[in-house]
Amino acid sequence: MDSPRAPKLTRRAFLGAAAVTVAAACSDTGAEDETAGSTAATEPVPSEATTGPAATTPPPAGPSRFVVAGPDDSQKVALTFHTDGDLDLATEILGVLGERDVPMTAFVVGEWLDANPDWTTRLTDGGHELANHTYTHPTFSELDPAAMTEEIERCRDVLVRLAGGGGRFFRTSGEADGTRTPSDTVLDLAGQAGYPVVLGFDVDPLDYQDPGIDAVATRTLETVKPGSVISLHFDHPGTVVALPPILDGLDERGLKPVTASELLSVG
Q1: Residue 61: what pLDDT?
Q2: Domain 61-264 carries which CATH code?
Q3: pLDDT higher for 245 or 16?
Q4: What is the Cα–Cα distance from 103 to 58, expressed in whole angstroms?
Q5: 3-state class of 21 per DSSP?
Q6: Under the phi-then-psi rule, with left for phi > 0, alpha for psi from -120 to 50, and beta for the rest, what region is 227?
Q7: For the whole model, what pTM was predicted?
Q8: Residues 6+ positions from 120 with CB-CB distance below 8 Å
Q9: How far is the C-alpha of 106 from the C-alpha of 232, rounded, in Å?
């Protein structure tokens, strides 16, 4: 789930306080599971959709499927990040992932990548997959069909221009974007833009609300399971500090973080 872009704590102030609490990130403090019921993928995403970040977006092939999780008989989970915002925080997230050789799927806000085109290769050179998260990050459900189409296609076109392809997945922005089945209109428009899958998620720690490091890590690890798709965000200091405990917790559970493409091609 996304929220409107709101003012956040400064990076310096937050990270200073964070050092005191990071050791407790995997504590037993409970958090109510905020996600709705999920629809797991029961068949692989068609391999012709893309073979990597530079593959071309396929031609329209009917409405998109809405998927929130992968096969539950795999020990893999997909890390997905809503990608925009502060570049220093983004650099820190890539640093954590790079140190552990962990790939993720970056749901890119098109105007952010347009403004920071060098981040295309920074992401793909790190083994990360690019996907479409609209161009301006509006509250998607409030748009009319023409505006929806423009948001999807403008971001797709940025990805094509900068990365060589529009990616395999689309994700709406704004309210309940990952846990509620999109309307038939959204699925139709995403399919027409070349996206066979609108990818939601079944693990949502609500990190964009800046609930604290403990909450982000604990909510993630309490709800994750084999085949999960995890939703996290760039531009939030708490997510940066919570990421190492999250990765440690996944490892302790025998779960391997992968891209969405790898997860949904299993089984």
Answers
A1: 64
A2: 3.20.20.370
A3: 245
A4: 23
A5: helix
A6: left
A7: 0.81
A8: 113, 130, 162, 163
A9: 10
Q: How confident is residue 1, by pLDDT bands cut at 50, 70 and 90?
A: low
Using CB atoms within 10 Å of the CB of residue 164, give its burial: 0 to 12 exposed, 13 to 18 middle, 19+ buried. Answer: middle
- Is 133:108 a contact under the CB 8 Å cutoff? yes
Residue by residue, DSSP assigns 178-206 as TTSPPPHHHHHHHHHTT-SEEE--SB---
Q: How far apart are CA 179 and CA 193, in angstroms?
A: 22
Question: What gap in Å lies between CA 93 and CA 90, rounded to an integer?
Answer: 5
Between CA 163 and CA 51 the distance in angstroms is 13
Residue 60 makes CB contacts below 8 A (sequence gap 6+) with 191, 192, 193, 194
Give domain limits for the chain. 61-264
* Token pair for 79: 């890390």
Helix axes 213-223, 237-252, angle to 10 degrees: 30
Encode pLDDT of 191-230 as tens digits: 999 999 999 999 999 999 999 999 999 999 999 999 999 9
User: Under the phi-then-psi rule, with left for phi > 0, alpha for psi from -120 to 50, and beta for the rest, what region is 174?
Assistant: left
